[in-house]
Design brief:
By secondary structure, the protein is mainly beta. It has strands spanning about 5, 10-15, 20-25, 30-40, 45-50, 60, 70-75, 80-85, 90-100, 115, 120-125. The strands form 2 sheets. Strands 2, 4, 5, 6, 9, 10 and 11 form a 7-stranded mixed sheet that branches. It has a 4-stranded antiparallel sheet with strand order 1-3-8-7, with no helix packed on it. The mean pLDDT is about 95.
C-alpha cells in the first residue's frame, strides 16, 4: 500500500510555470506506475501524464504535450509534474495516482486503472 501527498499548487499567470510534486510512502515506490490527473469544476477527472515504474516510459494527454513533463525519483519516492506555458484552461485540482506494476515498464492512462490517489493540489491560471 502507498500513501500519496501532492504539493506545489498555486496561482500563476498565463504563460507561467509551476512544478507539482507527489511524495509517496513505502519502500517499493519503483513498483508503482504513477500518473497525474486533473479535475476542473463541473468536469470529470481527466488524464494528464503517466510514467512507468522504471521511469523509462512516459505518456501525455494531447492537451499538455510539449508543455508538461512528468518525472520521478525512485530514491526519494517522488513524482513531479513540471508545467510550463500554463493556460487558463489548465486550471483544476491536480491529483497524483499510483498503480502497482511489477514489470516497471508500463504506464496507465485510465482513471479506473489506478489503485491509490492523493488528496489533490489546486492550480489556478489567471488570464
Amino acid at each position: 500500500q502507498v500513501q500519496l501527498v501532492e504539493s506545489g499548487g498555486g496561482l500563476v499567470q498565463a504563460g507561467g510555470s509551476l512544478r507539482l510534486s507527489c511524495a509517496a510512502s513505502g519502500r517499493t515506490f519503483s513498483m508503482y506506475a504513477m500518473g497525474w490527473f486533473r479535475q476542473a469544476p463541473g468536469k470529470e477527472r481527466e488524464f494528464v501524464a503517466a510514467i512507468s515504474g522504471r521511469a523509462d516510459i512516459s505518456y501525455y494527454a494531447d492537451s499538455v504535450k510539449g508543455r508538461f513533463t512528468i518525472s520521478r525519483d525512485n530514491t526519494k519516492n517522488t513524482v513531479s509534474l513540471q508545467m510550463n506555458s500554463l493556460k487558463p484552461e489548465d486550471t483544476a485540482d491536480y491529483y497524483c495516482a499510483g498503480k502497482l506494476d511489477y514489470s516497471g515498464q508500463k504506464y496507465y492512462t485510465g482513471r479506473g486503472q489506478y489503485d491509490y490517489w492523493g488528496q489533490g493540489t489546486q492550480v489556478t491560471v489567471s488570464s
